[in-house]
Q: What sequence folds into this?
């Protein structure tokens, strides 16, 4: 195999990552070779006979898997942004082997013995800080992954993990295929009445690209959002809403059975490892510490939100009745549409009015400039990096003292071979002076009809959000890879991202970047005021929607028993009904395309509550900037040094307390939402 090594860029990845040279044919031989290398290194560590040490045992385990992890990160990334049938086939071939390698790692008896004796050594007793934490977390992690199980139970666990990996991958691919298999061609523009010009232009371009007449609507997020918010035709909204919420429920792409299987396997896994349920297993090392505590948090917030939610729903129903002189029910596909109309009536605020002020170039520049002012860094174009698609932009991030920190890629627009949503991916945690490598992806409206890409306010927040994750990755100063950057507890990881969104709703911050794409005018003061008022419009409904996702996630991973409770989709719909302003139809199937919960072995399973949990943290932490200055470098540097730089090198609650001087409070979030 070694003679191919030089030909295979995955085997010895260098910076810059040669995205232009990595193809499907490299995946299988490259990943197999790296697994073999890691396997040899781990065997050597496990079989060593000298006394175990921090460096020779614990750090050596870290190093043994570094190249494999790096290569698989690149492969996973390409699968999610530029896949082809060949690439997907290669990815599917290596995936079971890679997941077997990872789940088998803590089951290597030799390694476990060495770690246990290291833990009992004098050296271990003297470890402090990051090193002590690495040892404790590694031991806990090995236990949670079955290190203490007997031989037969280890084999059971291994089988469950492999099945989970395959089923969840199939789940994600079904969602992608079901999304892409839908199109609705509309030739008569009258049927699209209500849609803003930007959405019409995108639909026209999409049709032209497919060589079709008229307008092409898809299940990609921008197309769905335009119809749900603006289409006057209730028939059209119903068609798109139903298609979107019934994705992956038909024929070969039906995910509903997979969901039940996945939940069953997760439950078996938790029991095998001595936990009552899957939520307890995954929350043990998070801030919440247990599934019940996460559920209690969701319940408390739901109760505090419910009265305002009921009031908002009643108001929306009355609004619809007054507008139409009817007394019909509020249908699920009515909610976004009438809410948008109600928002405009109350606040004379049209989200589309703002779009002209948010050309994507300015938004990116604004996020970079705010980071520069707060955190003492510079962000500059890094030309000539190989990329996976010509639309991808490349940058470097440099410390004010000139030290190189990272390079990153930005991929903004939807493509058929790219998954939907927005995300940050940290490809490499470097040790200085090497540079961290990361990227963020979004699926914003591309330039269309001769206009630049203009973002709506939510897209702007998304860019700031993902950029916040990216800063967390790139400003890391933790030398141990598995405790660096964004590798923190899942209910803490959204703090650095969500806090950045705050700067998108402050006039002083908007003035640094938002400007009309034709006239260069800043966003008018009164438009910002209306935005701020409108932002809290139906805040309780938005919160209940998120809490519904969190509640269904926890219910499925704590209370749902696949043998007793039958159809997982029906069970989920019963939980979700409480959080929906309209009656959900029986064939509603949100969970069949709920990638967060089911497209990875763990992913956000039993972790969706984290978004709200972190929102409590971010609203609370932002009060310091709000009170002491939006661009206050001193506070910014404290946030950089006490939170962003420290990864998981200390308990997340400790990092929070180091920055705030106390534990988090619920009130700042409720105040920000106008719900206190
Ligand atoms: Zn995030």
A:
């Amino acid at each position: 195999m070694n003679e191919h090594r030089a030909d295979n860029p995955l085997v010895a990845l260098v910076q810059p990552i040669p995205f232009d040279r990595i193809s499907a044919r490299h995946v299988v031989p490259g990943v197999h070779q790296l697994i073999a290398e890691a396997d040899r290194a781990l065997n050597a560590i496990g079989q060593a006979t000298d006394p175990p040490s921090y460096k020779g045992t614990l750090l050596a385990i870290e190093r043994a898997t570094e190249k494999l992890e790096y290569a698989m990160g690149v492969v996973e990334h390409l699968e999610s942004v530029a896949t082809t049938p060949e690439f997907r086939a290669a990815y599917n071939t290596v995936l079971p082997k890679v997941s077997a390698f990872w789940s088998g790692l803590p089951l290597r008896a030799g390694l476990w013995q060495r770690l246990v004796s290291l833990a009992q050594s004098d050296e271990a007793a003297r470890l402090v800080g990051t090193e002590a934490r690495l040892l404790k977390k590694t031991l806990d992690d090995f236990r949670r992954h079955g290190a203490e199980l007997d031989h037969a139970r280890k084999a059971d666990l291994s089988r469950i993990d492999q099945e989970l990996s395959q089923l969840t991958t199939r789940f994600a691919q079904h969602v992608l295929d079901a999304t892409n298999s839908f199109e609705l061609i509309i030739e008569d523009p009258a049927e699209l009445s209500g849609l803003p010009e930007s959405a019409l232009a995108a639909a026209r371009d999409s049709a032209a690209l497919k060589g079709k007449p008229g307008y092409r609507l898809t299940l990609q997020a921008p197309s769905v959002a335009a119809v749900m918010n603006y289409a006057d035709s209730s028939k059209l909204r119903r068609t798109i809403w139903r298609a979107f919420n019934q994705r992956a429920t038909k024929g070969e792409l039906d995910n509903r059975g997979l969901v039940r299987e996945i939940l069953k396997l997760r439950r078996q896994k938790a029991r095998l490892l001595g936990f009552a349920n899957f939520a307890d297993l995954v929350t043990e090392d998070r801030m919440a510490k247990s599934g019940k505590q996460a559920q209690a948090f969701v319940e408390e917030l739901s109760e505090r939100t419910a009265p305002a939610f009921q009031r908002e729903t009643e108001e929306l129903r009355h609004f619809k009745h007054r507008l139409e002189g009817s007394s019909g029910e509020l249908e699920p596909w009515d909610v976004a549409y009438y809410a948008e109309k109600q928002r405009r009536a109350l606040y004379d605020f049209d989200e589309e009015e703002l779009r002209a002020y948010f050309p994507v170039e300015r938004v990116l520049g604004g996020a970079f400039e705010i980071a520069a002012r707060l955190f003492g860094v510079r962000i500059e174009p890094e030309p000539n990096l190989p990329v996976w698609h010509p639309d991808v932009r490349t940058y470097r991030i440099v410390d004010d003292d000139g030290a190189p920190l990272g390079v990153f890629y930005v991929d903004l627009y939807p493509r058929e071979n790219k998954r939907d949503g927005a995300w940050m991916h940290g490809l490499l945690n470097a040790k200085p002076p090497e540079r961290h490598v990361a990227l963020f992806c979004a699926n914003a409206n591309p330039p269309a009809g001769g206009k630049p890409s203009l973002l709506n306010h939510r897209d702007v927040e998304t860019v700031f959000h993902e950029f916040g994750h990216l800063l967390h990755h790139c400003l890391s100063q933790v030398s141990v890879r598995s405790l660096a950057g964004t590798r923190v507890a899942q209910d803490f990881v959204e703090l650095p991202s969500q806090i950045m969104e705050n700067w998108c709703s402050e006039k002083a911050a908007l003035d640094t970047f938002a400007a009309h794409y034709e006239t260069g005018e800043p966003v008018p003061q009164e438009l910002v005021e209306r935005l701020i008022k409108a932002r809290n419009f139906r805040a309780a409904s938005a919160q209940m929607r998120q809490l519904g996702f969190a509640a269904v996630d926890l219910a499925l991973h704590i209370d749902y028993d696949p043998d007793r409770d039958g159809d997982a989709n029906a069970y989920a719909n019963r939980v979700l009904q409480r959080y929906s302003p309209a009656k959900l139809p029986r064939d509603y199937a949100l969970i069949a395309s709920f990638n967060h919960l089911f497209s990875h072995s763990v992913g956000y399973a039993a972790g969706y509550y984290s978004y709200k949990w972190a929102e409590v943290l971010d609203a609370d932490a932002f009060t310091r900037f709000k009170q002491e200055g939006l661009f206050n470098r001193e506070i910014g540097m404290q946030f950089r040094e006490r939170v962003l730089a420290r990864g998981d090198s200390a308990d997340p609650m400790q990092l929070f307390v180091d920055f705030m001087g106390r534990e988090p409070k619920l009130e700042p979030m409720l105040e920000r939402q106008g719900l206190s």
